[in-house]
Amino acid sequence: MQLLREHAAAVDEVDLERAQHQLAVRRLRAHERPYRRLEDAALDLLGRGALRSRAEWLAGIRTVTAAEVSDAFACMLETGASLALAGALPRAAGERAREILGEIADVRAA
């Protein structure tokens, strides 16, 4: 939560550049896997109604500003945490998860 608060206050330009580079590398690596390319294409078509080229996607990463990133982190802080549990869980796992989530919320409020 501390890192989230720090980034909500301000994002350093060097950190932003590093993150943009990491996203670009991850995207280019993912582009080498046919199934991932197919999934990305489907998401583009469903979300935007058109396909983006690799160059358009990379340009989109570079246009994000530090202020926009800080605003996104601030929005995450305001929204709060959520939790989903699935599968076979031990008895009282849901209650324990709610307790832990409450503890996180208490830390967030402090």
Give the distance, in angstroms, between the N- and C-terminal Cα atoms.
11 Å
How many individual domains?
2
Superfamily (CATH H level) name of the largest domain: Metalloenzyme, LuxS/M16 peptidase-like
Main beta sheet: none
N-to-C order of helices and strands: HHHHHH
| CATH topology title of the largest domain | Cytochrome Bc1 Complex, Chain A, domain 1
Q: Which structural class fits the helix and strand makeup?
A: mainly alpha
Shape category: extended
Summarize the structure.
The chain has 110 residues and is mainly alpha-helical. It is built from six helices and no strands. The termini are close together.
Q: How would you explain this protein's 3D organization?
A:
The chain is an all-alpha fold and 110 residues long. It folds into 2 domains: 2-79, 2-Layer Sandwich (Cytochrome Bc1 Complex, Chain A, domain 1), CATH 3.30.830.10; 81-110. It is 74% helix and 0% strand. It is built from 6 helices and no strands. The chain has helices at residues 2-9, 13-30, 34-48, 54-62, 66-79, 93-109. Helix 1 packs across helix 5 (66-79) and helix 2 (13-30) runs antiparallel to helix 4. The longest helix is centred in the first third of the chain and has 18 residues, at 13-30. The protein is extended, with a radius of gyration of 19 Å. The termini are close together.
